[in-house]
Amino acid sequence: MSLSSRHLLGLHGVPKEDIQLILDTATTFREVLERPIKKVPTLQGKTIVNLFYENSTRTRISFELAQKRLSADTINFSTSTSSAKKGETFKDTVRNIEAMKVDMIVVRHQSAGVPNYLTRISKANIINAGDGLHEHPTQGLLDMYSIRERLGRMEGLKVCIVGDVAHSRVALSNIFGLKTMGAEVSVCGPSTMIPLGIESLGVKVLNNIDEAVANNDVLNVLRIQLERNAGIRIPSLREYHHYFGITRERIEKFNRDIVILHPGPINRGVEISSEVADGPYQVILDQVTNGVAIRMAVLYLLGTMH
Question: I need a labelling partner for 93 at 20 to 30 A (CA). Which of 71, 116, 199, 205 fits?
Answer without folding.
Answer: 71
